[in-house]
Amino acid sequence: MKFERSDKNVGSRVFKGALFMTGARFILRLFSLINLMVLGRLLDPSDYGIASYAIAIIALTQVFSDIRVNSALISIREVNQTHLDTGFTINLLRGFIVAGLLFAFAGPIADYANEPALVDVLRVLAVVLIFDGLKNPAMLMFRRNIDFSREFKRVALSTVLGSLAAITVAILTESYWAIVAGTLVGRFAESAFSYWRIPYMPKLGFRESGVFLRFGSWMTIDAILDYVTSAAPTMLLGRYAGTHALGFYTVGKDISQLATRELTGPLMQALFPGLAALAHDTPRLRVAYRKAQATVLGIALPIGFGSALLAPEMVALIVGQKWLAEAPQVIQVFGPVFAISMVGASTNGLAMAKLALPQMVMRAAFLAVFCLPIFWYAVSQHGVSGMIYAVAFYHLLRASVNMFFAKTLLKDSFFSAFLMGWRSFVAVAVMSGAVLLMPSVSPGGMSEIAVFLSVLPRIAVAAVVYIAAHIVLWQLSGKPDGFESKVLEILGKALERFRERRARHAG
Question: Which residues contact 422 (CB under 8 A, 6 or more apart)?
Answer without folding.
Answer: none
